[in-house]
Design goal:
This protein is α/β, with parallel strands linked by helices. The protein has 7 helices and 15 strands.
C-alpha cells in the first residue's frame, strides 16, 4: 500500500490558509496536510521535521519570505528524503505573475481559485508519480535551484568600495584591510570577519556589506557567507552532492548553497 502524499502550507493569514487547505481536501482527498506554518521561519523548521512531499509557500510572510524559506531549505536539506515540490502562493500582481511564468515555477494566486488549484494539483500528481533521484541533488531540488535564480533579488547596486574595516575585538577596535579577509559569516545581528590572524565583529547587514566589496574578489556563497575568492584553494562535493570550499591554509570548509554552486563549476 502506497503512503499517501503529505503537504505543508505556510501562510501568515489563518483564513487564507484555511481556504487553501479546504480546497485541497476537496480536490485531493488522499493528500495529508501537516499542521500549517504561520511564517517562513516556522515553515523551514516544520519542513525539516515533517519532510512533506509538497510545500505551499506564501511569498510575503513576516520574518522570512517564501522565497527566502525555499532558499534556506535548499541549503539545509539532506538527501534522506527527496526535496519537496514547491508551489508559491502570491497575491495578484502583474509583475510577480510574469516573473513566475518566466521562471516556470508553479504558483497559485490569492484568493485561491479552485479551477486554478486543480491544474496545480494535476501537475503535482504527475510529478510525484515520476522518478526523483535517489542520491545527490534530486530532481525537485535541481529544478527549484534553476528556476529560483530568475526570482531571487538581484545583487545590490555597487557602492563605494571598502578598503579598511573597523571591527570589534572584545573591547578594542581593530582596523582590518579588506584584502586580508578570508570570509565573512553572518551571526544574528553581527557579521564575523575572519582573517588569518583571528576574528572580529562588525554590525552591518551582509547584503549591505556585499554592495561595498569588489565583486571580482568577493562572492556570496550562501545566505550567511561571503568568501574571498582569492583564498579558495579547491571545491569538493560530499556523498550527497553538496559543495564545499577549501581555503588556503585553513581546516574549515565553507558550505556552498545550491543556488550559488554554478559559480564553482570550473573548480
Amino acid at each position: 500500500m502506497n503512503t499517501p502524499p503529505t503537504a505543508l502550507i505556510a501562510e501568515d493569514e489563518p483564513i487564507l490558509a484555511a481556504v487553501l487547505a479546504r480546497t485541497l481536501r476537496e480536490l485531493w482527498p488522499e493528500l495529508v496536510l501537516l499542521p500549517h506554518a504561520p511564517n517562513g521561519i516556522a515553515a523551514v523548521e516544520a519542513a525539516l521535521a515533517g519532510r512533506p512531499d509538497i510545500l505551499f509557500l506564501d511569498i510575503r510572510m513576516p520574518g522570512q519570505s517564501g522565497l527566502e524559506a525555499a532558499q534556506e531549505l535548499a541549503e539545509r536539506w539532506d538527501d534522506v528524503e527527496p526535496f519537496p515540490l514547491v508551489v508559491f502562493v502570491t497575491a495578484y500582481d502583474d509583475y510577480a505573475v510574469q516573473a513566475f511564468e518566466q521562471a516556470a515555477l508553479d504558483y497559485v494566486l490569492k484568493p485561491v481559485s479552485a479551477a486554478r488549484l486543480e491544474r496545480t494539483v494535476r501537475r503535482l500528481r504527475e510529478r510525484l508519480g515520476g522518478a526523483q533521484g535517489s542520491s545527490g541533488q534530486d530532481a525537485g531540488l535541481a529544478a527549484l535551484v534553476e528556476q529560483m535564480r530568475a526570482l531571487l533579488p538581484p545583487a545590490p547596486a555597487p557602492g563605494p568600495r571598502l578598503t579598511v574595516l573597523r571591527a570589534a575585538v572584545g573591547a578594542m577596535v581593530r582596523l582590518i584591510p579588506v584584502q586580508e579577509v578570508l570570509y565573512f559569516q553572518a551571526l544574528d545581528k553581527y557579521v564575523n570577519v575572519v582573517t588569518a590572524d583571528g576574528e572580529a565583529l562588525i554590525r552591518l547587514p551582509l547584503k549591505d556589506l556585499l554592495a561595498q566589496l569588489d565583486p571580482e574578489q568577493f562572492a556570496q556563497v550562501s545566505r550567511s557567507c561571503i568568501v574571498n575568492l582569492r583564498q579558495v584553494a579547491a571545491a569538493s562535493r560530499d556523498d550527497a552532492g553538496k559543495l564545499s570550499l577549501h581555503l588556503r591554509g585553513r581546516t574549515e570548509r565553507l558550505r556552498v548553497s545550491p543556488l550559488c554552486a554554478h559559480l564553482f563549476r570550473q573548480m
